[in-house]
Amino acid sequence: MPGLLRGVARTAVVAGTATAVSNRVSRRQGNRWATQEQAQSTPAPQPASAPPGGGAGMDRITALKELAQLKAQDVLTEAEFEAEKSRILAS
Fold first, then answer.
1. Quick one: pLDDT at residue 46?
2. Taking residues 5-17, what's their average pLDDT?
3. Residue 63 belongs to what domain range?
4. Distance in angstroms (rounded) separating the CA atoms of residues 70 and 67
5. What share of the chain is helix, strand, coil (3-state, %, to 5)?
6. b/e per residue, 71-90, with b = 16+ CB within 10 A?
7. Which of 21, 35, 63, 88 could share a disulfide with 47, CB 3.0–4.6 Å?
8. Which residues contact 50 (CB under 8 A, 6 or more apart)?
9. Both 49 and 38 in a single domain?
10. 61 in the same domain as 34
11. Residues 32 and 60 in one domain
12. 3-class SS of residue 68
């Protein structure tokens, strides 16, 4: 009988630990998803368009730098970054 109780106790400890770990992982994943949803729901700031004139080259560089900063901060996705970069370089 003591062997049976020991087995039951061990099973209870393992199950309790597994439940605690599973709950923690679920909570962390839920927080991560909530953060991603919040970031996606806020509109991404659009870089200032270059005004016409002789300084357009410097304005493009500034816009590209700002765009790179937004991507580094995970505000823009790779696709959004590439689309905006193409738009800036085409102007």
1. 65
2. 78
3. 45-91
4. 5
5. 75, 0, 25
6. beeeebeeeebeebbeebee
7. 63
8. 56, 59, 60, 63, 88, 91
9. no
10. no
11. no
12. helix
Of residues 10, 18, 74, 84, the one with CA closest to residue 47: 84
State how far the Cα of 73 lies from the Cα of 67, in Å rounded to an integer.
10
Shared domain check, 36 and 51 = no
Residues 6+ apart with CB under 8 A from 64: 85, 88, 89
| Burial of 62 (C-beta count, 10 Å sphere; 0-12/13-18/19+) | middle
Whether residues 81 and 51 share a domain: the answer is yes
The larger pLDDT score, comparing residue 65 to residue 6, is at 65
Q: Rounded to an integer, what is the distance from CA 80 to the centroid of its chain?
A: 14
* Total structural domains within the chain: 2
